[in-house]
Design goal:
The protein has about 230 residues and is an alpha/beta fold. It has nine helices and ten strands. The strands form two sheets. It has a six-stranded mixed β-sheet with strand order 6-7-8-3-9-10, with helices on both faces. The radius of gyration is 18 Å and the shape is globular. The structure holds adenosine-5'-triphosphate. InterPro entries: AAA+_ATPase, ABC_transporter-like_ATP-bd, ABC_Transporter_VariousFunc, P-loop_NTPase.
């Protein structure tokens, strides 16, 4: 579970994130929408403890991420827009390497299984990542999240640049993780995916969460109108 309480990040006089309050429970997919510079990545980076809040708190499973960096990192998986993988290694070798960094060790068969369950075609498992499409790389990210048995997923524009089929496959994987009780916070520009895949949607503007609601409570047309209204005002 993720919880932000009056979470604020300032750079000098500039407020990148202003008193954010949000909760993401297990089984929720909370999609953060907003224009460039709205504060979405800042929010994700605060939960990752990549940056420290000026005031307020980011907590994972009720632990403050600044005070408990090890414990909170242990339960989360992070997939950015461009996942850092070693191009000269195969998907399986990358998965093995990153699992090892997290203290998890799996047999070759288990690693193959994790990649297959994450939708990577069998033929690519033992090919170098340099030959992978962006969608395939993101599937390795999902496999890593599975391998880490992460209960929290932090995603920063993970489907940006994916074609609709790959994006759809990624959404299916998120829904599967949701079914396992994973709490997901995703920054995205994709209104359609947010409505389609998200359980909750937040709209950010200039560091402020100006709206938050359940995705089932609005139609796609209303979401689009609401979003555009906030962007134009
Ligand atoms: N290290 C920094 N120093 C100063 N300002 C920063 C720093 N990092 C981010 N900002 C500013 O904070 C604001 C929020 O940035 P953030 O990256 O969170 O936006 P975003 O909503 O993720 O945007 P995008 O959709 O472009 O990824 C921006 O105005 C950005 O310029």
């Amino acid at each position: 579970m993720l919880k932000a309480t009056n979470l604020t990040k300032k750079y000098g006089n500039f407020t990148a994130l202003n008193a954010l309050n949000l909760s993401v429970e297990g089984g929720d997919i909370f999609c953060l929408l907003g224009a460039n510079g709205a504060g979405k990545s800042t929010t994700i980076n605060l939960f990752l403890n990549f940056i420290e809040p000026t005031t307020g708190e980011a907590a994972i499973n009720s632990l403050n991420v600044t005070q408990y960096p090890g414990e909170t990192k242990q339960v989360l998986a992070y997939i950015p827009e461009n996942l850092m993988l070693y191009s000269n290694l195969t998907g399986l070798e990358n998965l093995d390497f990153f699992c090892g960094l997290g203290g998890k060790h799996y047999s070759r068969e288990q690693l193959e299984g994790l990649l297959e369950q994450s939708g990577l075609q069998k033929a690519f498992i033992h090919r170098r990542v340099s030959s992978y499409s962006k969608g395939m790389r993101q599937k390795v990210g999902i496999a890593l999240a599975r391998a880490r048995e992460a209960s929290v997923l932090l995603l920063d524009e993970p489907t940006s640049g994916l074609d609709p089929k790959a994006s759809n496959e990624f959404s299916e994987l998120l829904l599967e993780m949701k079914g396992k009780g994973v709490a997901t916070l995703m920054a995205t520009h994709d209104l359609f995916r947010a409505k389609d895949t998200g359980t909750h949607i937040g709209i950010m503007k200039e560091g402020v969460l100006v709206e938050q609601f359940k995705s089932g409570d609005v139609s796609f047309q209303d979401l689009e109108k609401l979003y555009l209204r906030h962007m134009h005002n």
